[in-house]
Each structure stands twice: as C-alpha cells, then as structure tokens.
Design goal:
The protein has 75 residues and is mostly helical. It has a domain at 1-46. The chain contains 2 helices and no strands. α1 (8-23) runs antiparallel to α2 (29-44). The longest helix is centred in the N-terminal third of the chain and has 16 residues, at 8-23.
Length: 75
C-alpha cells in the first residue's frame, strides 16, 4: 500500500486499525501504525507552540463562590 496515495479519511482509518492491531499484539503492526500516524501528522501539520493563546479570565477571591467546608467526624 502506498501511504501517500490514500485520502485523508482512509489514512486515518488505516492508522486507527493498525494501532488497534498493534495493541492486540500483532507482530508487525506497530511499525505500520507508526508510519501511518507519521503521515497523518505530516499532512495535518504539528500544532504551533508559538501561537499566542488567550489567558483565562481572572477573578478575585471575593468573586469566587464560597465552598462549604465539611466538618470532619471522628466516629
């Protein structure tokens, strides 16, 4: 099978199938699954770590709901 000729959906399906085979213990499945997954990552690209992400909204402690503390019972 030529990996580069597969459509994206078929490639991902094959990668999932071969990974499942590898997890079940099939002898040569791990290498094939790795090659398929590597092609999926190549096509989709790796996530950019330098892209700025918005910070979560910050709230003061006074704005947070007060938690009810459970009293510990020794019995």
């Amino acid at each position: 099978m030529d990996i580069r000729e597969l459509q994206d959906e078929e490639l991902m399906a094959q990668a999932r199938e071969w990974r499942q085979r590898a997890l079940r213990g099939e002898k040569d499945a791990r290498g094939i699954a790795h090659e398929l997954e590597r092609e999926v990552r190549r096509r989709r690209g790796t996530p950019q770590k330098d892209v700025p992400r918005p910070l979560p909204t910050m709230r003061t402690l006074a704005e947070l709901p007060e938690r009810q503390h459970r009293s510990w019972k020794p019995w």
